[in-house]
Design brief:
- The chain is an alpha+beta fold.
- The chain is built from 7 helices and 5 strands.
- The longest helix has 28 residues.
Length: 193
């Protein structure tokens, strides 16, 4: 399910109003229990590197971060000063979250449209269930498999993803980032069968 809209009720807002829209969104998601989510193949950035990830410039670095612009910590709301600094340079931020079997990706973008002292911000939500994400990766023959066959595919995908994750984590460590060794992937298998 994809949903596109404005970050605020008004189409054009001040930077402060846009920031307040972001704060309200983050507070609402945090109060409902949404937690940060890393795709199984993505590096697990430490929360303390959140602003560094968001402000990383891939074009000026030998290490290209796949998570560039994606929040590693949604519980620590950016300050207004951080918000302004980010949108002065890159014009977007995003997050991956999960709640039970739902995976939410959202992206806040500042559009090039503006009015005097007012800016336009959009938000795009992509919501998928764990079951949907798993089954869209299967071919027609695999979809006919029994639970045991599906579990084998799930486990093999997890192993393959772990290899990709470890490679990316090695690269980002060399770039000065820290890995959240305590992050454990949520068990999505329970929602797939």
């Amino acid at each position: 399910l994809d949903i596109n809209g404005g970050l605020n009720k008004a189409e054009f807002v001040t930077s402060e109003q846009a920031y307040q829209g972001y704060v309200s969104l983050m507070q609402e998601l945090n109060s409902k229990g949404w937690q940060r989510y890393y795709n199984p193949w993505d590096a697990r950035y430490l929360k303390e590197d959140n602003f560094k990830i968001l402000s990383w410039d891939n074009s000026k670095s030998p290490v290209s971060l796949l998570a560039h612009g994606i929040m590693s910590d949604t519980t620590q709301i950016l300050t207004f000063k951080e918000w302004q600094a980010l949108f002065a340079n890159q014009k977007s931020i995003a997050a991956n979250l999960y709640l039970r079997d739902l995976i939410l990706y959202f992206e806040i973008n500042q559009t090039p449209d503006s009015k005097p002292n007012h800016e336009q911000y959009t938000i795009r939500y992509q919501i998928d269930s764990a079951k949907y994400k798993f089954y869209t990766g299967l071919n027609a023959e695999q979809r006919k498999m029994n639970e045991q066959g599906l579990r084998k595919i799930y486990d093999e995908d997890a192993q393959s993803s772990l290899g990709s994750r470890l490679i990316e984590e090695k690269e980002i460590k060399q770039a000065g980032f820290h890995i959240d060794e305590n992050y454990k992937d949520p068990d999505m298998w329970q929602y797939i069968v």
